[in-house]
Amino acid sequence: MWHYSNFLVAECDGQAAAALCAVPAAGTGPAAWAAIEEVGAATGLTAPELEAIRRRGVYIRNCWVQGGEGDWMIEHVATDPAYRGRGLVQALIESALAKGKAAGFRRATISFLIGNEPAERAYTKAGFAFADEKRDPAFEAIIGAPGFRMLARMI
Known about the structure:
The chain is α+β, with helices and mostly antiparallel strands. The protein is built from six helices and six strands; from the N terminus they run E-E-H-H-H-E-H-E-H-E-H-E. A six-stranded mixed β-sheet has the order 1-2-3-4-6-5. The longest helix has 15 residues, at 28-42. The radius of gyration is 16 Å and the shape is globular. The two termini are 20 Å apart.
């Protein structure tokens, strides 16, 4: 899901200004781990080092929420602060939803850190509504947010 081909990018004056990732939700966890293993192997990490990475990541898996097997997933939404307030995220979300609909998906999901109010406002404006959330004290101790919230909408 982190491959550049899965990202939509908005540009202003030839500069990347905002981006998001849009992919089928099915299999993203195993695909993410496969990518980590591939990069680990290419950079010479040993099996014990990779296992240590897996153990350190458990705090994320305990509170991560994402769409179901038949959902279109939007993630990693970001806007350069210099370009905020221009409607770029709304345009990117609409493009991502059109891409998901064209691929045959009927529902889209988007997850974000609990407490990220600007993100929640933007996603609600795009028609998303609360679907689920997970909290974990270990995650909050490390990240500073209690967990993840997921919103969903039909496309």
